[in-house]
Amino acid sequence: MAADDSNGRLDDDDYPAYTMGRAAEILDTTQGFLRAIGEARLITPLRSAGGHRRYSRYQLRIAARARELVDQGTPIEAACRIVILEDQLDEARRINARYESLDPDHSR
Prior knowledge:
Layout: H1 3-10, E1 18-19, H2 20-27, H3 31-39, E2 46-47, E3 53-55, H4 57-71, H5 76-102
Antiparallel strand pairs: 1-3, 2-3
Helix pairs in contact: 4-5
């Protein structure tokens, strides 16, 4: 693999660059929390050749939002559902903005 290929991957939000330990450290949480949100199907880490969980920057942002909600007293299952719905809403807004940019005369 060429060095510029790895640099490109590290710039990719979906590239699984972080081990579970490093992800927990970045989020200032426990590995158990990462396992729990994985079990709740909020994020599904990729696995290394050795079977270790690997997380992307996108997954870390999702996990950070879930942790924020849990820290505020929201049960983990509810926090995961909220984060999923927020993510879906963000995606719908991005799609809507693209459609509106194609038809600038579109009025509401």
